[in-house]
Design goal:
- The protein is α/β, with parallel strands linked by helices.
- It has a domain of about 190 residues: NADP-dependent oxidoreductase domain (TIM Barrel), CATH 3.20.20.100.
- The protein is about 40% helix and about 15% strand.
- It has 10 helices and 8 strands.
- The protein has an 8-stranded parallel sheet with strand order 1-2-3-4-5-6-7-8.
Length: about 270
């Protein structure tokens, strides 16, 4: 459900992630992505690549206002002392005066700060004009409810969570939907695992496309934003053309049925997952 009150409705549905990409690899990936046609770039303080991402954006022929940039605040900055300065530092690295979306990367403050404190800082950064939209990432159902009770409805643009055919995360998605929070699904390929799945390969054969296109099209069919990453131009092109692929109801149901709770991102500071 997308409605006029949904803060995240202007997030481009398909973006490129930069997790694990460093230096020239990050620069080249973002440069190629922009050339291919992507207009949504996702990074984070902890990735250590904001500088490379920023250079790629600056060196691109694409105008800044056409590019949707997301970054995320790390766990040791979730307090009044460090939050705002960390965002200013991110903007300096990115060579931008604002980001389009700023997220709390994990609901796991290193020093046990309250959600009221760090969401208050997130809102403050928006009021300062350093970000256009604000959101959350890796929040559980209880944490989403708590965040909405603190910030109110219509303020949280997205909850960025792991979503792929082996982890469909439907309960969390449903709660986000109830609150008008757009879901961004990261790691859509489950680090390549789902690209070898027979069900997905059969659907790909049926449509004459790649497994990656099927997975991206499945995410988009569920009205998710998704941010696959790649360092190869051919794969970036394939991911981008997935927007044209229309899966039928049978395809979608078969992929939905692959869910097995196979989570890839589970650091030791993770919340208690739903």
């Amino acid at each position: 459900m997308t409605n006029a009150n949904q803060s995240g409705s202007n997030i481009p549905a398909l973006g490129v992630g930069t997790f694990r990409l460093k230096d020239d690899e990050a620069y080249n990936s973002v440069s190629m992505a922009l050339e291919v046609g992507f207009r949504h770039i996702d990074t984070a303080q902890i990735y250590g690549n904001e500088e490379a991402v920023g250079r790629a954006i600056k060196d691109s022929a694409v105008a800044r206002e056409e590019i949707f940039v997301t970054t995320k605040v790390w766990n040791d900055k979730l307090n009044k002392a460090k939050f705002v300065n960390s965002v200013k530092e991110s903007l300096t690295k990115l060579q931008l005066s604002y980001v389009d979306l700023l997220l709390i990367h994990w609901p796991s403050p290193e020093n046990g700060e309250s959600m009221e404190e760090y969401l208050g800082e997130l809102l403050r950064v928006k009021q300062m004009g350093l970000t256009k939209e604000i959101g959350i990432s890796n929040f559980t159902i209880a944490q989403i409810e708590q965040a909405v009770s603190i910030l109110g409805n219509g303020v949280i643009a997205t909850n960025q969570i792991e979503v792929h055919p082996y982890l469909t995360n439907e309960k969390v998605r449903a709660v986000c939907n109830t609150h008008g929070i757009k879901v961004t699904g990261y790691m859509p390929f489950a680090v390549g695992k789902v690209l070898k799945d027979d069900t997905i390969l059969n659907i790909a054969d049926k449509h004459g496309v790649s497994a990656a296109e099927v997975v991206v099209a499945w995410e988009l069919a569920h009205d998710l934003v998704t941010i696959p990453s790649s360092t190869k131009r051919k794969n970036l092109e394939t991911n981008f053309t997935a927007q044209q692929l229309r899966l039928d109801a049978d395809d979608i149901a078969k992929i939905d049925a692959l869910d097995r709770g196979d989570r890839q991102a589970a650091p030791d500071f993770s919340p208690a997952w739903d």
